[in-house]
Write a structure and sequence with these properties.
Blueprint: E1 2-4, E2 34-37, E3 44-47, H1 57-70, E4 72-75, H2 82-90, E5 112-115, E6 138-145, E7 153-157, H3 158-164, H4 167-173, E8 177-181, H5 192-201, E9 207-211, E10 213-215, E11 222-224, E12 230-233, H6 238-252, E13 258-261, E14 268-272, E15 276-279, E16 290-296, E17 310-313
Parallel strand pairs: 1-2, 3-4
Antiparallel strand pairs: 2-3, 4-14, 5-16, 6-14, 6-16, 7-13, 7-15, 8-9, 8-12, 9-17, 10-11
Amino acid sequence: MTTTTPAASAVPRTASTPGTRDTPSTPSTPGGVEIRRIGGRIGAEVRGLDLAGELSPGTVHAVDAALREHKALVFRNQHLDDAGQLRFASLFGELTTAHPTVPSVDGQPNILPVDGDEGIRANHWHTDVTFVRTPPKASTLRALVVPPYGGDTLIANAAAAYRDLPEPLRELADRLWAVHTNAHDYAEPRNEKAAEHRRRFVSRRYRTAHPVVRVHPESGERGLFIGGFAQSLLGFGPAESRDLLRLLQSYVIRPENVVRIAWNPGDLVLFDNRVTQHYAPDDYGDLPRLLHRVTVAGDVPVGVDGGRSRTVEGDDAAHYTPSAA
């Protein structure tokens, strides 16, 4: 497996304005597979793999290593079915169920339908399911129906954001803890379907305290672990919490830290949920858009001082993730 950096004229449409390359090259692996950067700080397109086929342990190891480096991987024109997506995601660990509160695809308890027609429009920066104590390790998104324009997904590198912080702000962030909750205005209901989705979303309430700076359990990188579910900071009032979270979040969503994925039917994206945020702009009107999401169970986040996340309100979400045990 080789890593290449395309010339400016060859940069695919999925790339955002590139920043600087600040991570090492992906290790070489079995031939015929190419990893092509699509952003300077985040994102790569993996070519030469058929995800419907059997992947060797060496190939899986190489994809996992590429995920640690690039944070988000795009696999074009795969056209997997539900079983194929489940099989691929399970190569990286045990799977969660679809969601702690939102129903799954009928007959598929591990698959969440991300359906614009049903009001599921995540028009907000977030990391998946951080309101529970053990959020997912990784998420896969598979495009079934995409609009002819709009409907992209933006993914941000929270480790690069942490490195961008001025030293005094970084030292403060290292000591902060945020309370994440699903019981807030995550997405403004746009119609009755969206309102019903919101009612389901908050039908079981969760509040969890996570370190604002999370140490990646595999790479050791530090990243800002905040996003839309982070609503307050321990030890600070509401106004101060909002101001500090907004300041830290502004580093995550800097253009140089973001890659924009333009979907085609059959595409699949794998991203590291421990060190990224993502956003799906609501810019496609009433056009249909349907993705299927499958997530890999994660561990308990750990902060710079070794402190581990803790539940503030709600249960341990054992019905959602095997990591709760």
